[in-house]
Amino acid sequence: MFRPNITAMQGYVPGEQPRGMEFVKLNTNENPFPCSPAVKAAIGRVCQSGLQRYPDPMATAFRERAAELFKHEVPGITPDWILCGNGSDDILTIVTRSFVAPGGLIRFPRPSYILYNTLAAIQGAESETVDFKSDWTLGSAFTAANERLQLAFLPNPNSPTGTVIAPDKVAKLAAALPCPLIVDEAYADFATTNCLGLVAENERVIVTRTLSKSYSLAGLRFGFAVAQPQIIEQLIKVKDSYNCDSLSIAGATAAIDDQAYFAKTRDAIIATRERMTGALRGLGFECIDSQANFVWCRHGKRESRDLYQQLKDAGVLVRYMNYAGWGEGLRISVGSDEQCDLLLAKLGGMV
Ligand code: PMP
């Protein structure tokens, strides 16, 4: 009944989203701050409309505002350079369905976002991972020729490490690859650089972004891709007709319009990230310098899985991750200052 690749595959297991229990929730890189008040007002106005009409299938309002927002980073950008989705996971699904045929090959780094494996499996394609070098860049194995290679994913900043490959290096990877490169910039707003500018130079670079993290809208589901218009034109054929609803389009548009709120909350998270990294090191953790809203760490003397469980029992939820053949550790999202203090106090009593 089912395609064999579906029965054979492991389903994607998102991070724990406990309901009805109060946790200090630092496991799925959500923003500790609520969304901008302007978002709530915009969604309220849509509710007043009665909701009986379908949404704008192209999310025009958002695309217009986003093109305006990125005009200095992407020369020549217009709304036609933007594709909106139900979170950036939806965009990742659209690009996979667009470029990858059954039997094809998708390449991405190890460790990175686990969903890429799932998308390949659903498509009946093979996944190939390439380990980072010791400086967290990628070598020639990432761009090696393979006639089955149809798509490459590069999370930048990477999850779970929070490391960044500089745009000039990403440009070289993209130029050397024989297939489109999806630069997954879910966390780029917390970093010092990004690859948006590359889309103007290379039609095979597609940058994806989300409002789930830096705009505090994980509950709304809104993400987007930026690429040259002839690429977006094809991707539109593959998306669901109404993949963004009226509430999310209005909310997302209001969110990117409130740049003052965005900058204030982002800056607070970056400051807390730096403080948290230093304090974790003080407690004996090895931490990788992060440019995202989370920190990847391991304790010199304690098992990561045990620390995860002890923290959970103490009401603090972090993410334990184990990448077969690479290693394991804890990915801890950057919360508010109060949440960070509580985490550090609990850990201080454990290590
Ligand atoms: N890319 C990466 C690297 C992520 O960590 C996430 C969050 N799980 C996403 C994309 C998807 O985020 P969303 O669907 O909420 O936009």
Description:
This protein folds into two domains: 15-34 and 260-348, Alpha-Beta Complex (Aspartate Aminotransferase, domain 1), CATH 3.90.1150; 37-257, Aspartate Aminotransferase, domain 2. The chain is built from twelve helices and 13 strands. The mean pLDDT is 97. Strand 6, helix 7 and strand 7 (205-210) form a beta-alpha-beta unit. With 351 residues, it is of the alpha/beta class. The longest helix is centred in the last third of the chain and has 24 residues, at 259-282. It is globular. The strands form three sheets. The protein has a seven-stranded mixed sheet with strand order 2-8-7-6-5-3-4, with helices on both faces. Strands 9-10-13-12 form a four-stranded antiparallel sheet, covered by helices on one side. The protein has a two-stranded parallel sheet with strand order 1-11. The site of 4'-deoxy-4'-aminopyridoxal-5'-phosphate has 12 residues, from helix 4.
